[in-house]
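anyone else get weird line breaks when pasting these?? whatever heres mine. first is seq + tokens for prot A
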Amino acid sequence: MLSRRTMIASTAGLATAAAGPAVAQAPTTAATPPASVAQAPGFYRYKVGDIEITAVHDGFANRPLDGLIRNAEIGDVRKAMAEAFLPETTLPITFTTLVVRSGGKTIVIDTGNGDVGAPTTGRMAANFRAAGFDPASVDTVIISHFHGDHINGLRLKDGTAVFPKAEVKVPEAEWAYWMDDAKMSAAPEAMKGAFAGVRRVFGPMAKDVARYEPGKEVAPGITAVAAAGHTPGHTAFAIASGGKTFMLVSDITNHPALFVRNPNWAAVFDMDAEMARQTRVRILDMAAADRVQVGFYHAPFPATGHILKDGPGFRFVPVQWSPAV
């Protein structure tokens, strides 16, 4: 029987034999390019019928694993991380915005962290331009909910509007909650910063912001889908064209390795944990049954694939990367 030790030794022997006589290595010169410190621009295109979707990467931020999940033992969480070959102390949370070209319009769904997030975030603007888009040519910006990593890319720290000509559309229930002065006054101290961030972004444009309800078409081929729980007006989106449907599930889960595999786990980010759990299971069940392609905000880039029912939970199957759109 071939043991692991024998295999390693045999492989080493084959490598030595194949190498033949020793060959001197070329010295490193000043012309040797330096080690790379950054990836190529982060965007990826695919189509749903006649609609073109471009995933645009906004970077990542590390979140300590302790306290991330309210109703699971930390040992179980670390086991889930290890099974997904992820760190067992921190969760690398990624951020992916979408640009949709539909009906002759350029539509942005969520805007990333902007220039106020962690140093490893805020890549959306550069990647957006690298993908061939001009912020001044965006017709519509659709927001799924008002957490900072989804809205801060609308406005720079200096107050400049990033998409100056775009109509901005937001969920009616989000607006009603986050723009309510009484709710802001009554909010716990830990949430007051979130309220202030919402006012920073939307205050200067408040009279021009359009609000939408679930079930309504918010742009050509894009329909808002009720997905409350993560926040009061959290919204997913069905994108349909040519008999094909794509479901952007926004933040019904954070990293799929945790919350798709374990849909009953409650993330600390969910404002109404039980409602968020019901929404998560409902939408994942639907995606699995209908075999539709899904997109996440926090899945590994390009954050799109399919959902399979797998025992008590589900499994996320990423799309195969393709050079053709």
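and prot B, same format (seq, then tokens)
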Amino acid sequence: MDRYVKVKSDANPYDPAYESYFDKRLQWRMSESIAGRAKLSRLWKKQEGRCAECAERMTSETGWHIHHVIWRTFGGTDDQSNLQLLHPTCHVQLHARGWRV
């Protein structure tokens, strides 16, 4: 994979429809750096290896996604306090329900 991946030309960081796209980009960027992997490790330990949505264990088989508690499109940041790890299916279901406080 290329070190620098261009953002899709039609992707708008302020459009909720692209929130998942930018979450995936963040996850990829974090996995490519030591600081990012350390942040993922801290999230993992904070959540005790459990999905923030369903509380079931996350494993390499189930996988995980990074989720912004307050979506970036609504002013959320990439700070660790605004991030959660979720199962991929839990993440999709959460986004399908739409944003909520």
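btw re prot B: The chain has a mean pLDDT of 83. The CA atoms of residues 5 and 25 lie 9 Å apart.
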